[in-house]
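Job type: complex structure
Entries:
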Amino acid sequence: MFEANSDKGSLQVRNVSKYFGTFCAVDGIDLEIQRGEFLTLLGPSGSGKTTLLMMIAGFLDITTGDIALDGNSISDVPAEKRNFGMVFQGYALFPHMTVRENVGYALSVRKRPESEIREKVNEMLDLVQLTEFADRKPGQLSGGQQQRVALARALCFEPPVLLLDEPLGALDKKLRVEVQDQLKDIHRRVGTTFIYVTHDQEEALSMSDRIVIMRDGAVEQVGTPYELYEKPINEFAAGFLGKSNFLHRSDGVYALRPEKIDIRPSGTGEGEPRLSGTIQSITYFGSMQRIMFLTTDGEELEVDIDSWRNRDPLAEGQSADLFWDKGAAVKLEE
Amino acid sequence: MNAIRKSLHPGWLLVAPFLLLVIALYLGPILNILWLSVTDPEPGMGNYRKLFVSDSLLRIFWTTIRICLITTVGSVLLGYSIAYAMVHCHQKQKSYMLTLLLVSFWISILVRTFSWLMLLGHRGLVNNALEGMGVISEPIAFMRNELGVLIGMIHYMIPYAVLPLLVNMQSLDMRVMDASRNLGASGQQTFMRVYLPLTLPGIVASSLLIFILSLGFYVTPAVLGGGKVLMIAEYISVQLLVTLKWGTAAMLAGLMLFGVLAMLYIMSRFMKLSAVFGGSA
């Protein structure tokens, strides 16, 4: 089975910046990426995540700072010598080659013997379940299949690091969820370090070991999906990863996830309600309901409740009380 | 009858007069030429037989094909470099280059041919300058030989080579080249294994275009060849105007016509194929 470079693949990004003229695209980023880790760079467009990935791949020069693989600087190593696999946005498959030739390309340009290439390509096609399409051209494949060819091609020469630039961007929603599972499974099996760029928070949450939230070329917060979701440090992190209510109090701003709030008709809850007010609107989503709530102080809150828990159906215009556990509201940094 | 009525759109009636006019004025003379080639001076295949017995005719034939082939290779090589430079330089430089290319397109072939004489002729600018500097003692014979014809023809054909290649190169997804480098291929490997195969349709298109256009070249060989390089088009005109052997001229014209049609057929086959393997990424 697939043998990854088990002793290689940690990546150090040290104070890396990128300027295009006077425009600063990436601003002094420090990152320590562990061997075998699935790290996601998450941010809106223009946040510098793709620029950072292109610098790691070697397609863009670093303005200042240094990138190192296993402690050895690679900033001056050209892209073709870095040995990083990459899955491009839109896949960038070779249209004039068959699937087999695409996947074997990296070994073929390294002048490996024909038999070794054949064996390795078969193994990769098996990994991505495309064995029966080996002799087709990329133009004859569906989007999802092309995506898997791109993945097999990038993994075929056993790179220590695999870079993925929005690889699911071109797929439709349903297929995307399916491919996420496959991608995570392949990551588990090959053990290669994955660096994954996306603007989709669901992809980031479901696949990553750690997520880097970026904005305007800088890192906002780094952590596991759990840490980022439960303990966002600022409004941007809380708002970009999942939804959040922001409560402005005298001692600062608190983030409160809509699903952590319990809502009861006035006077029916146990204990002292945290807030009271009226229900503005209820939107029904099947498994859950989204309630827009206006407090007596004029604050607007979003409350998500599971439909099955809504035993005493609430109505629009009704007064109600809000409850949440201690610690559910997270104090944000200034 | 019904089937014919169905397939005949009433629109055909509107264009029918013009269609008939074109057929009469275009196909008629061509058929007449073909008819001449087997009837003048006497009925039979005598004119075609000359191809195998007349040494001079054969020589003209091969000279024409040789010059056309060298012209094709030369202009496609130069055109490829120019198109490559245009695609990969800045937008502003690209529009300058395109303007220069189109300007040379618009200048009459006669003017361009004679300006080569001024530049490279016996007492031309280049020979004068080199002699003045003492680099050479005798003028170099650039003109009035096959070299002169080739220089003139390649120069004239370059825009025809650049345009199809430019269209081809502009349609390429450059991320594919990035992918090749990322997979460990050197610049040379990327060019040979990815860029060149993907620009092959453009190379074929411009090669056939230039070869076919070159076959009919008349002015440039006549002026720059100085009467020493006889190509088929000039020979045909001599047969028509001087020796009045219309049958021979008609035979040669017919051969050229069928040669070109055969090549166009091959081209259409090839371009359709290219759409299959190069059409979508």
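Summary: The domain at 54-105+154-278 of chain B is CATH 1.10.3720.10 (MetI-like fold). Residues 48 and 255 of chain B are 9 Å apart (CA to CA).
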